[in-house]
Amino acid sequence: MSRQQDEKALLDAVTARLAARRGPTDLRAPGAADVTWRSLLDCHVTRCIETRREAEREQHGHIDLSKYATYQDLSAHPVPEPSDPDTQQEWTLVREDSVRAHHCVCGNGRVPCDRCTGHGELVCEPLRACTGCAGAGSCARCGGSGQRGHHSAAAPARDERETCVKCGAPEAACPACRGAGRVRCTDCDGSGKVACPGCEGEGSVGHKACGGAGRTTTWTEGTIEHRSVKSEVPMPTTQPPVLVRLIASGAGQWRTADCGYGDRLPADLSDTHCAAVERGIVKRPGELARRARLRHLPIARVAVSGEPGLVFYAFPESAGCRVLPLPSARRVALLTAAAIGLAAAVKAVFMLLG
């Protein structure tokens, strides 16, 4: 339907609405009505964008790259064209003659452990202070010196002490160390050596530079990606009042159209909306496919001569045309002024009564 046909149908609907108020009216007569458009339009664009990029890759050890296709010039490498702008696909490629194997200086992927310098063991103290007496209370008679009377501590209860191995005093020594003041280390069992926790006693660790593989593989990887990108076309700010938009969103007979490359925009779009859509569908770098999905509703704003207090908004609906009369800006201003005046008068009355 053309813009002229829309205007005729919507004016006829407003005419029928006015007939109940003031009788027959010809809104097509010169000066009888001022018609402007406040049409609604949603436009969402879906594009398939292609990106191509190269990157240097490295992996420890050997890697089988035979499953990847090779290329010489990534920018010229052919891939299937997308049949739909919603297409999402990706290709991983390897540049010809770029695969290199590098043997590591470690030889076998292992290097001496830094913590034990390759020995696999760490030095440990074979004897440690007794936890039962902390060394100072090892014997009540000799204090661990082996000489009776050297320590002045009183002898503890009979069942808490044993014979000292240093001075031989009965019932005077700590039962844990028997007067020695030190006990065998439980970590090394008194041997003076423990397995290195850094290498678990092996003396060597995996070489970080090659990941313990003894070699690395490098190559140039190319990636071609087709991804779907969605955007919404910004619309001009001139719109009908909120009430009209709310009612029209549910009751209006919206028209839809899908526009691809070479397709013409709907004939009933306004010049402003056509310009907005054309700006929004400009081809982007790497764009391979595009679809613009439009959803629009023509809405006419009709100011009728002789009805200064009302403005009529009309739009098509399933049963014909819907007409919504709303107060004009002039009427809203008069009502606001009257309300302000009434409020001031009421305030003055209360002040007099108070």
Task: Explain what you see.
With 354 residues, the chain is α+β, with helices and mostly antiparallel strands. The chain has helices spanning 3-22, 242-251, 271-280, 329-353; strands at residues 33-37, 40-60, 69-71, 89-95, 100-103, 110-112, 121-123, 127-129, 182-184, 193-195, 204-206, 215-232, 255-259, 287-297, 300-304, 310-317, 320-327. The chain has a domain at 1-38 and 299-354. It is built from four helices and 17 strands. Strands 2, 3, 4, 5, 12, 13 and 14 form a seven-stranded mixed β-sheet that branches. A four-stranded antiparallel β-sheet has the order 1-15-16-17, sandwiched between helices. Strands 6-11 form a two-stranded antiparallel sheet. The longest helix is centred in the last third of the chain and has 25 residues, at 329-353.
Properties at a glance:
354 residues, alpha+beta, 7-stranded mixed sheet, 4-stranded antiparallel sheet, 4 helices, 17 strands, 18% helix
Poorly predicted runs:
none
Terminal residue distance: 67 Å
Kindly name the structural category. alpha+beta
Oligomeric state, counting identical vs distinct chains = single chain
Rounded mean pLDDT is 85
Strand content: 25-35%
Give a short account of the largest sheet: 7 strands, mixed
Strand element count: 17
Shape: elongated
Describe the structure concisely for a colleague:
With 354 residues, the protein is of the alpha+beta class. It contains four helices and 17 strands.
Write the layout of secondary structure elements.
Layout: H1 3-22, E1 33-37, E2 40-60, E3 69-71, E4 89-95, E5 100-103, E6 110-112, E7 121-123, E8 127-129, E9 182-184, E10 193-195, E11 204-206, E12 215-232, H2 242-251, E13 255-259, H3 271-280, E14 287-297, E15 300-304, E16 310-317, E17 320-327, H4 329-353
